[in-house]
Amino acid sequence: MDIADLKEILRILEEQDITEFELEQDGVKLRVCRASAVAPVRPLVGLPPDLAAAPLPVAPPAAPGGAAPPGAASEAEPAANGTIVKSPIVGTFYRAADPNSQPFVAVGDRVKVGQVLCIIEAMKLMNEIEAEIAGEVVKVHVENGQAVQYGDPLFTVRPA
Amino acid sequence: MFKKVLIANRGEIALRVIWACKELGLKTVAVYSEADADGLHVRFADEAVCIGPPRNIDSYLNIPAIISAAEITGADAIHPGYGFLSESGYLAEICEACSIKFIGPSPQAIRLMGDKSRAKKAMAKAGVPVVPGSQGVLEDEQKAVRVAKEVGFPVILKASAGGGGRGMRVVREAAEVAAAFRAAQAEAQAAFGVPDVYIEKYVQNPRHIEIQVMADTRGNVVHLGERECSVQRRHQKILEEAPSPAISDKLRRRMGRTAVEAAASVQYVNAGTIEFLLDQDGSYYFMEMNTRIQVEHGVTELVTGRDLVKEQIHVAAGEPLSFSQREISIHGHAIECRINAEDPVTFVPSPGTIRHYFQPGGPGVRVDTFAHEGCEISPYYDSMIGKLMAYGRTRPEAIARMRRCLEVMVVEGIRTNIPLHLRILDDADFAAGRIDTGFMERFLPKKKAAASP
């Protein structure tokens, strides 16, 4: 791939208003992310600019992402076709890291223990919710941007 | 005025706040732990958010969960009730930062009054009578004797690092001070590792008299009279009344003025209570200030005809007080019995399911409760299941009315202290108004003697 190819790719991306593009060819991997002309679904107000761009902070100890507090009942509940992952905190559910990113997981994805499933925003902090079991995501229970309370079902994961 | 109030509490006080909000046309949000999913506050609020598992620390004391619940519901005010986070300067501060109105005083006032030592200093500075004593630790025996003579006997020597009644010695004569001082130091060193001792005037079996105050953001501060709260066991109030049989109109005016000055000196806003020790000779001393609405606020409401919780909301919304001092008058007499889920003799808590429930009604009766038939009284929270109040034109009428209420109140499936309250009302000293903070200590052995064959 030479500079002419690259320029051509970028021109096409802009023309078509494509926000994310990945290409692997001849040992070269190219990934392009563009700011979309469309306004983001929900602006990240309150976060200083460097934080908004930086990797998301891990959930604070008071509300560990995905890990059940010691002594409390497990938040995962067996369901007919898998285990229900429940919200450990109160907040707003987001499927992706930001409005321009792909969702962390989709139905059919295989997840590992510790893998980030979603973000729940509480008090302007983005809390990463991690999978406690490995398996296949069979259902997503909430919509992007929906308010969730403690114990609300988020995903059903079929252990595998 | 607010559109939506989140109540950061549970049980009867959560309902109390919901009643006030409903009357004011405000929307309500209840928060609850998993143990309270069937709670009445959850059912009667317009919206409800589960904030965590049963333990207090994970739910009703969980500030991020509560603030987050306010955010997702769009609540613009939080009422903290009593207990839990009601005296958390931290919650008040976070509310400010998140543009949510905390229905209560400022974080500064909460923190100042929450630190008992700082509060006492601030009150002394404002000219409020405090228990006289040494300014800090006594260096030696000679200083102890000198201060004791200044303060006047009897005095009590207390360990600075102490508590639980240890490192305390009552001294009645100057000749005993030196020996008592040495002994108190030794005890303090042994028990707390620090021999520091200070002196206070010993107020023997005082009455616990508290004054309700209400202040707005315009600098208006009003008192609504006193509550007599001397009937206590291990510093837990059991029964309260308003007015106090020991307080004359003149003393009420004096103590009320003192309470108003105390609140004004710290720029206090919203509801508060100043607690005093009232000595047998009529002198009174500041003990502490509670910067929240209190459990026993209802007896004040009954004798003044005012709604204190609604007033809290009005004040928090920036409105002036709806009454002046001149417009406050005390009529009649109100008594409150705290109904607890506990054994009436051993005081052991009695959680469980209420199988049958009937609460009294009729003239002059007010019941603030979350209890009902089928209700689960869980072991996670305190044992008070409701407050039974009786109002009469006179104290004897209030007592007779309360007795009638206790006799017909039915709470089956758990044990309650209803039998204890009946015995207290029958006590000759109580009926005569001869009560002080030593009352329960004297009463309980009498009760046992009567109970044994």
What can be said about this structure in brief?
The complex is a heterodimer of chains A (160) and B (453). Chain A is mainly β and 160 residues long.
Description of the molecule:
The complex is a heterodimer of chains A (160) and B (453). In chain A, 11% of the residues lie in helices and 34% in strands. With 160 residues, chain A is mainly beta. Chain A has 2 domains: 3-33, no CATH class; 57-159, OB fold (Dihydrolipoamide Acetyltransferase, E2P) (Beta Barrel). In chain A, the strands form 3 sheets. Chain A has a 5-stranded antiparallel β-sheet, with no helix packed on it. A 4-stranded antiparallel β-sheet of chain A has the order 8-7-5-10, with no helix packed on it. A two-stranded antiparallel sheet of chain A has the order 1-2. In chain A, a hairpin with a 2-residue loop joins strand 1 and strand 2 (28-33). Chain A is elongated, with a radius of gyration of 18 Å. The N and C termini of chain A lie far apart (41 Å). Chain B is of the alpha+beta class and 453 residues long. Chain B folds into 3 domains: 4-103, Rossmann fold (3-Layer(aba) Sandwich), CATH 3.40.50; 141-201, ATP-grasp fold, A domain (Dna Ligase, domain 1), CATH 3.30.1490; 207-451, ATP-grasp fold, B domain (D-amino Acid Aminotransferase, Chain A, domain 1, 2-Layer Sandwich). Chain B is 35% helix and 26% strand. Chain B has 15 helices and 20 strands. Chain B has helices at residues 11-23, 40-44, 63-73, 89-97, 107-114, 116-125, 141-151, 177-192, 249-265, 297-304, 308-316, 395-408, 418-426, 428-431, 439-451, and strands at 4-7, 27-33, 47-52, 77-79, 101-102, 155-163, 166-171, 197-201, 207-215, 221-233, 236-242, 270-278, 284-290, 333-340, 352-353, 356-358, 365-369, 376-377, 384-392, 410-412. Chain B starts with a strand and ends with a helix. The relative contact order of chain B is 0.11. The mean pLDDT of chain B is 94. The chains are: A mainly beta (160), B alpha+beta (453). Chain A binds chain B through residues 60, 62-63, 69, 71-73, 89-92, 122-123, 147-152, and chain B through 34, 49-53, 55, 58-59, 62, 64-65, 67-69, 71-73, 98.
